[in-house]
């Protein structure tokens, strides 16, 4: 049976000319219509006895080898268990419009649940590292009918959290629990059983909701065929993923089967994956980099995916033992976020043979030029940086594996996608393209643009011709390479001048002691906003904030770009997927600005900034009631909304959620 096999291979790309040759064949002839289930079935037909998915627990098993594989699914096993999962979900009355909520750490059962849910309905992937309030909101919005999450286990706190959340999910029919210790080393399992479960982990599921062990429930289902075959079109919804939340609260994005199959095809081509590849997967499955780039893409060509630890790259021992993992399993590729690359540079690798590795993909942010050069020089690997966003399947551009890799660039557009740079300010008129090399707003078009982005009134702006406004500022050079400048809403407007935070960050990062830098807008009564900087220092380095201010100002020609403050932090905040998270820094900078304004009038007060649907809002509670009127006068003309509350009124009010 033809299950949508790819009609042609993806040849190496060295430049825009190769993309244009590739695109002479219409995309519809590159990839037949079909579902992600069809894609997995095709791989099982071709590679049935080859390993598809393995899990390394990264805790010593009976043999004392932390790198030993704890479980493996051949392609025949993988499609059988995915089929069982789909049939299991169907047995609970799941329809094609219903969703399965999947809130799991980095376990192989996540793949079984994900592709099984897509075979019969919708998969809703949620990162367990999100706040409980965000998890609950996403699951309610998705209207989940079945929830797949962790069983109670020592060392994991997810079950009591999910039991509380599940109690407020209307329409929930079943909870399927995954034992996180099923693949752990024997020593760890024995210790966990001997210790028993703390009382806080024994929360009960909601009344009326069926609760089962996921693996046992799968075992009673047929794995040879779907009980109710599903016929899909490219635009049929497959999954509900969510944004990282780095520009606000996480929001759900509907991906179609066509979106996901395209991304699998495109990313397999970017990394030139083949059935001989061994891919290390350490990103959260809710991240497109894990589900598609390091999941469906290698599955589509018959490669072997090895999942590293129950918490991925965050698992104890994974980064320290990474090079040993590479040597043990002859890994050839991996994808990671920038902090992982930084950590690996500080991990000894001389004793391990990592010569099998050939490519590393950097997702969810750019490496510093220093890290990029050091990593390639030390490992001999080709590091590919790119650009993507959740509304566009996670990838729209990547540096070519076999062409020039330009440090700091996001690379060339992916095949059958188009990029435009348009004037950042349109005055309400139609967007006009800017000349090559000029900075403007980045628009994306292609088969990666997700369903919700295309829908009228969707969460992201798409025009009538299908162009997605990413909200990013960027430029395209004469060779078609994409260079990101920053977020359009990150620009700081100081006295009518637009300041690019990236330029200020680069100036600070040039200091020998600085490991990372982030610059945000700090509200200012006279200028509207001014740059405020936050930095982290390299291990063992020290410099004071005043020296960093002088260092940045000496390297910035425009006085409007001069930061007014630098604060040294232990670490910069990041989202659950590892991206730099500027929202908490904006809140912190705002609170500092308000406190400074009050201190000038010798007013002591509790200051809390928060994000609301209307933007930044600040609540001020003076310590003394007599200072309320003075505080209101001091903050009356501020560029953000400030509410001053008397101490007695604040004591009676519920705390505001930050």
TrEMBL record:
<dbReference type="InterPro" id="IPR050237">
    <property type="entry name" value="ATP-dep_AMP-bd_enzyme"/>
</dbReference>
<dbReference type="InterPro" id="IPR042099">
    <property type="entry name" value="ANL_N_sf"/>
</dbReference>
<feature type="domain" description="AMP-binding enzyme C-terminal">
    <location>
        <begin position="504"/>
        <end position="578"/>
    </location>
</feature>
<dbReference type="Pfam" id="PF00501">
    <property type="entry name" value="AMP-binding"/>
</dbReference>
<dbReference type="InterPro" id="IPR025110">
    <property type="entry name" value="AMP-bd_C"/>
</dbReference>
<dbReference type="InterPro" id="IPR000873">
    <property type="entry name" value="AMP-dep_synth/lig_dom"/>
</dbReference>
<dbReference type="GO" id="GO:0016878">
    <property type="term" value="F:acid-thiol ligase activity"/>
</dbReference>
<protein>
    <submittedName>
        <fullName>Fatty-acyl-CoA synthase</fullName>
    </submittedName>
</protein>
<feature type="domain" description="AMP-dependent synthetase/ligase">
    <location>
        <begin position="41"/>
        <end position="449"/>
    </location>
</feature>
<dbReference type="Pfam" id="PF13193">
    <property type="entry name" value="AMP-binding_C"/>
</dbReference>
<dbReference type="InterPro" id="IPR045851">
    <property type="entry name" value="AMP-bd_C_sf"/>
</dbReference>
């Amino acid at each position: 049976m033809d299950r949508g096999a790819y009609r042609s291979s993806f040849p190496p790309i060295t430049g825009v000319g190769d993309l244009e040759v590739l695109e002479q064949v219409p995309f519809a002839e590159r990839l037949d219509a079909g579902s992600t289930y069809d894609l997995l079935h095709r791989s099982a037909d071709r590679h049935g006895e080859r390993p598809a998915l393995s899990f390394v627990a990264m805790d010593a098993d009976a043999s004392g080898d932390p790198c030993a594989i704890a479980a493996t699914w051949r392609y025949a096993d993988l499609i059988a268990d995915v089929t069982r999962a789909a049939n299991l979900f169907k047995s609970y009355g799941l329809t094609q419009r219903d969703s399965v909520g999947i809130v799991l750490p980095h376990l192989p059962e996540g793949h079984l649940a994900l592709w099984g849910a897509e075979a019969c309905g919708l998969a809703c992937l949620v990162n367990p590292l999100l706040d409980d309030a965000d998890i609950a909101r996403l699951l309610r919005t998705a209207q989940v009918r079945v929830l797949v999450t962790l069983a109670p286990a020592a060392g994991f706190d997810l079950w009591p959290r999910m039991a509380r959340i599940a109690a407020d999910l209307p329409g929930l029919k079943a909870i399927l629990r995954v034992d996180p210790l099923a693949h752990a080393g024997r020593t760890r399992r024995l210790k966990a059983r001997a210790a028993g479960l703390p009382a806080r982990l024994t929360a009960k599921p909601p009344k009326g909701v069926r609760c089962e062990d996921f693996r046992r429930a799968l075992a009673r289902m047929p794995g040879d065929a779907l009980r109710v075959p599903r016929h899909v079109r490219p635009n049929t919804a497959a999954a509900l993923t969510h944004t990282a939340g780095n520009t606000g609260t996480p929001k759900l994005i509907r991906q179609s089967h066509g979106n996901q199959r395209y991304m699998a095809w495109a990313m397999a081509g970017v990394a030139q994956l083949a059935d001989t590849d061994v891919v290390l997967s350490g990103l959260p499955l809710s991240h497109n980099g894990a589900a598609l780039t390091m999941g469906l893409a290698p599955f589509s060509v018959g490669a072997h995916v090895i999942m590293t630890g129950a918490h991925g790259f965050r698992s104890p021992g994974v980064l320290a033992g990474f090079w040993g993992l590479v040597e043990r399993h002859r890994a050839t590729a991996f994808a990671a976020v920038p902090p992982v690359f930084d950590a690996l540079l500080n991990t000894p690798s001389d004793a391990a043979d990592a010569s099998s590795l050939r490519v590393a993909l950097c997702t969810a942010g750019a490496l510093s030029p220093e890290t990029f050069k050091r990593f390639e020089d030390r490992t001999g690997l080709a590091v590919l940086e790119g650009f993507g966003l959740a509304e566009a399947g996670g990838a729209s551009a990547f540096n070519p594996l076999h062409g020039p890799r330009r440090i700091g660039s996001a690379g060339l557009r992916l095949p059958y996608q188009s990029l435009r740079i348009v004037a950042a300010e349109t005055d309400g008129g139609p967007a006009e393209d800017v000349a090559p090399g000029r900075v403007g707003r980045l628009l994306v078009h292609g088969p990666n643009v997700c369903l919700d982005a295309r829908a009228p009134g969707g969460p992201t702006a798409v025009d009538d011709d299908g162009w997605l406004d990413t909200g990013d500022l960027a430029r395209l050079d004469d060779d078609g390479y994409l260079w990101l400048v920053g977020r359009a809403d990150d620009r700081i407007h100081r006295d009518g001048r637009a300041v690019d935070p990236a330029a200020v960050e680069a100036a600070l990062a040039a200091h020998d002691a600085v490991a990372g830098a982030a610059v945000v807008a700090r509200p200012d009564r006279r200028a509207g906003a001014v740059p405020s900087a936050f930095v982290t220092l390299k291990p063992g380095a020290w410099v004071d904030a005043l020296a960093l201010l002088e260092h940045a100002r000496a390297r910035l020609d425009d006085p409007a770009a001069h930061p007014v403050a630098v604060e040294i932090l232990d670490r910069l905040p990041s989202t659950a997927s590892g991206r730099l998270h500027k929202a908490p820094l904006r809140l912190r900078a705002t609170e500092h600005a308000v406190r400074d304004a009050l201190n000038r009038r010798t007013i002591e007060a509790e200051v809390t900034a928060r994000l609301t649907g209307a933007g930044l809002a600040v609540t001020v509670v003076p310590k003394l009631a007599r200072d309320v009127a003075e505080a209101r006068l001091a903050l009356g003309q501020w560029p953000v909304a400030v509410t001053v509350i008397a101490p007695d009124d604040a004591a009676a009010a519920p705390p505001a959620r930050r």
